Amino acid sequence: MRAGVITFPGSNCDRDIAVALAAAGARVERLWHAETELPRLDLIVLPGGFTYGDYLRCGAIAARAPVMAEVIRRAAAGVPVLGICNGFQILAEAGLLPGALISNAGLKFICRPVELEVATTGSIFTAGYAPGQIVSLPIAHHDGCYVLAPDELERLADEDRIAFRYLANPNGSVGRVAGVLGPGRNVLGLMPHPERAADPRTGGTDGAIMLRSLVEALG
Amino acid sequence: MKARVEVRLKEGVLDPQGAAIGRALAQLGFQGVAAVRQGKLIELELDHSDRARAAAEIRAMCEQLLANPVIEAYTIAFED
Asked: Does the CA dihedral A126-A129-A139-B7 come out positive or negative?
């Protein structure tokens, strides 16, 4: 599997996800936000960080970076896209995922492991988990409160596109939603960091399950 | 030509920063503040003076970048 991890100005989890994907068996390329062309890729990753300093809105400027037109085209063509934390914010701003991420309800930056319920195993990202499995992944964010109109949230649930839910809501997200799938089920955005739970030396390996699942699915 | 864009959270969108400001005002002794919501002011200086063209351009700026239509509404005003 050829994975491309995009670095924007202010991305800081790009290397971590690249290392974790390589450990899971992927061939990983690092890509620059100003590129307008992309090589052939089996997976595109938008990593965590504080792109453009979170100026204007988190992920707002990165979502309009030169590379994103091609990312959007590839996503429409069915290429898997994984957005982690700021990457999720970028995907929402780019219109590849519904809703928006706003300030945590408690106003504090939260940095700790959280327990999540795997809400669907019907995606290449989550096929490696058991339905309803409880996993632990760290969150580290100030603006992780997921908002979505009630009727849209209902539709997401009906379409089985809620990927992860927090067991205990840390940030006010509607429906305790921690991660969602796009309409084609090939785009996943989640606030928790799977790359930070991919090595026993850093406290957990529940994130490695997702990455290995992707390598298995995408060759 | 100068224009002012005000971006606000839509009604019903949680605004914890506004609430925090309200609590701070109460702590300072200001009474009777029922609610506080915080928005953004973006000032633009254009290098032409065609008002109609500016209105269309700035509306497009708001739709494409300055406001997130999922959670924000905007108003545009021109300085005479």
From this structure: positive
